[in-house]
Specification:
The structure holds two protein chains of two kinds. By secondary structure, chain A is of the alpha/beta class. Chain A is 22% helix and 23% strand. In chain A, a hairpin with a 7-residue loop joins strand 9 (173-174) and strand 10 (182-183). The longest helix of chain A has 11 residues, at 35-45. In chain B, the strands form two sheets. Chain B has a six-stranded parallel β-sheet, with helices on both faces. Chain B has a four-stranded mixed β-sheet with strand order 8-5-6-9, sandwiched between helices. Classes of the chains: A alpha/beta, B alpha/beta. Chains A and B meet through helix 1, helix 5, helix 6, strand 8 and strand 9 of A and helix 2, helix 3, helix 4, strand 1 and helix 8 of B.
Chain lengths: 200, 460
Amino acid sequence: MGSREKIFADLNSVKFDQRFDYPTYAHPNSSVIDPYNSFTTVLDSVGGECHYVKNYDELKAKLVNFEVYETAKNICSCLPEIEKGNIDLNLVEDVHELHNVDLAIASGDFGVAENGAVWVNGDKLKHRGLLFLAENLILVIESGNIVNDLNQAYDLIDFENTRSGYFISGPSKTADIEQCLVIGAHGARSLIVFVIQGDK
Amino acid sequence: MSSHAKEAAAFLADEERVHWHDQALWFVRQKRDTASKNVPAWEELRETAHQIKMHTLSRLPEYLEAFETKASEKGVHVHYAKTAQDHNETILKILNSHNVKRVVKSKSMLTEECGLNHFIEKKGIEIIDTDLGERIVQLLEEPPSHIVLPAIHRKKEEVGELFHKHLHTEKGASDPTYLTQAARKHLRERFLAGEAGITGVNFAVAETGGITIVTNEGNADLGNSLPPLHIASMGFDKIIPRAKDLAVFISLLARSATGQPITTYTSHLAGPRPGQEMHIIIVDNGRSEILQKEKFRKTLCCIRCGACLNTCPVYRRTGGYSYKFVIPGPLGTVLAPHKDLKKHKSLPYACTLCESCSDVCPVKVDLHQQIIEWRAEIDKQGQLGLIKKAAMWGTTYLFKHPKLYRTLGKLGRIFLRAMPARLLNAIPIWGKNRDLPEMPAKSFSALHKKKLKQGGNYGK
C-alpha cells in the first residue's frame, strides 16, 4: 500500500462522536473608520510609507524627489506611464538577471487598511521574482482602492484565475538577532506605496 | 529517558541569559496582547478559526481529495508521505530527478520534524536554511529553540563570532544590522545559485488547490520564485476548506506570533510559474494517530504561531532545548508523548497549569487540558515514578480525611516555622531553587472561623 492509501485508510477509520459543521459566521469587520488614514498609519508603523496623489503627473513629480529613485542605477518598471526604467521586464529571459535591480515599480490592486498590506497580482509580472529581488520597491495602487480589512480584501480576489498573489506589507524585515528589528532582510529594503485618487 | 528539570539545568546556570530570554519572550507576548486588542472581534475570530479547523479535521479525506484534484489541475505534482522517511525519500527522488546539488530552504517545522536537512546532506546535496534565525542555528549545528524565533537563545555576540567564522564579518562585530546585512549578502548568493527551493506551507486551500506561505524576510518567495523547481511540504493538518477562511487565519496568525498586524509577505501560490515544476508533499507522520485520540485531536488545529511558547512561564525560563523535542513549550509538551511517552514523560510536569497557553491560543487548542490528560495517561501506563505516585496517594488520602488534614496543617506550621530555611532548601526535588513562603500563624480555616463569629464580614 502506498502512502496515499495508508493515509486515507487511517483517516477514514477516525470516528467523530459529534458533527462539526462548517461555521456560519459573518466575518466581523475591523474597527477601521477612515481606511485611507489607517492604511497610512499602519504602513508607516511597519516601515513602509504611503503617498496619495491625484494623477500620474503628480506621482511623477513626487517620485523624482525620493532617494531610492535618485540613486537607482537599474530601474525595472512595470508602469511605463510613470517611469520607463532601463530594464524591460518582458525582455528579461531569466529571472536571475534581475539580481541587480535597484528599484522595481509595480502595480498593486488595492490596499488593506487594518494591516497596511497591498495586494499584488504576481501573474501580471513576467517574473514575479522581481518583487523580492529588487533592492527597493514601489507599488502603485491605480484603482485608489483601500478596503477596511482582510475580510473585504479576500472578497476582491479571484483565486480561480490567480496563480500567484501577494499581500505585501512594508519592507522585508527580521528580528532574529536578539529581537532587534532590522529592515532589509532578503527582500526589498524599502517600500513606497502610491495611491492614485483621481483619473490618473 | 530525559528529564526536563535536568536538561534545564544548563540553561539556568546563566542567570543573566535566563532573565533576558524570559523578558524578550514576554515582550513578544505583550505585543501580541496589544495587537489582539486592536481587533474588537478577536474572540469571535478565535472561535471561528477553531470551528473551521474542527470541521476540516472531521472531514479530512474529502478536503484532501478536493485539494489534490484542484492542485493537480493547476499543474502541481501532489505526493503523500505516511512517515518522515517517506517524506525525505520523496524529496530526494525529486531532487535527484532534476540532478539538483544546491537547495535553498525556507522555514518549515515539518522538515525539522522529519530531519530532512541531515538526510539530504548525507546524499551530497547542499541544503541552506535561508531564514536568518534558521541559518544561525544551522551554522551552529543546533536545532531551532523556538518555532518562530529559532535563535532566540543566542546573543548577538555569539552570532557575531559565528558570522566572523563563516561569513568573514569583522571580528568582535555584533551589531544586528551589520550582521543581518552580511547574512543578506551571503544568502543572496545562495538564492541565485539555488537549483531548487523547499518551503513549508502555512495554509492549503481545498477549494482552490493553492497554498499560502507567510514570512517577514521574503526568503520563501525568493526560494520559490528563482529556481526552476519548488517543493512544498505540509502536514495534512494545514488544509482549510475555502480561500475566504484565510481572512480569519491570516488575521490571527501574525498578531498571535509577533504582534504584527500581518507578516511582510503573505504569498498565495496555486500552481507553478511558467517554466517551473512544483511539488506538494502531504505528510502524516503520526498526525492520524493524534486524530484518533479524541482527547488530543484539537492539537491538530494548531497554526504554529508560537504564542503558547512566548507566554509559558516554564518555557521562558528554561529555553527550548530543555524539552528535548523538535517543538518545545506547551505545544511540544502535548505533542512529544505521542511519539514516545516514556522518553518525554517529564514534560507534562514541566508545567504550572497556569492555563495561559490555552488563553492565548488563536485557534483554541485546549493545551492545559491535554497536559492534565497526559499526566493521567502517564500514571495509567505506570510511568509516574515512585515519588510522584506516593505523593499523589498521600495527598488523596489527606484530602479525604479532614481531621488528619487539619492536624497535619497545624503541625506543619509549627514545624516549618521552627526549622531553619537552609535545612528545608537542602531537601532535594522540592527545596532546590525554591524558597518556602513564610508560614502564617493561623490557618485559613481558623481565620475563616473567626470571621464567621464576627458575623462573616470580610470587609466591604
